[in-house]
Amino acid sequence: MAVLRIIIQVIFILLCIALTALVLMQEGKSAGLGAISGAAETYWGKNKGRSMEGKLVKITKYLAIGFMVLTIVLNLSVF
Fold first, then answer.
1. Cα separation of 19 and 1, whole Å?
2. Distance (Å, rounded) from C-alpha 72 to C-alpha 79?
3. N or C: which terminus of the chain has fewer CB atoms within 10 Å of its end residue's CB?
4. Which residue has the higher pLDDT, 26 or 41?
């Protein structure tokens, strides 16, 4: 069981590093006055999910879910 706990801890540390890097790579959400004037209805606003920024957001969500699951697993007293 000790070996399994060490493997999970290593995966957890790598996941934390990846999550930190992805959050730092994302752009800020401060839209300023562009959001008020309807700038979100542009081609960029409609296809943001297909862009690199949209992919970073999706990957960040999945890594955050993995972070929470591994945190719960590591805090269980089963190991």
1. 27
2. 12
3. N
4. 26
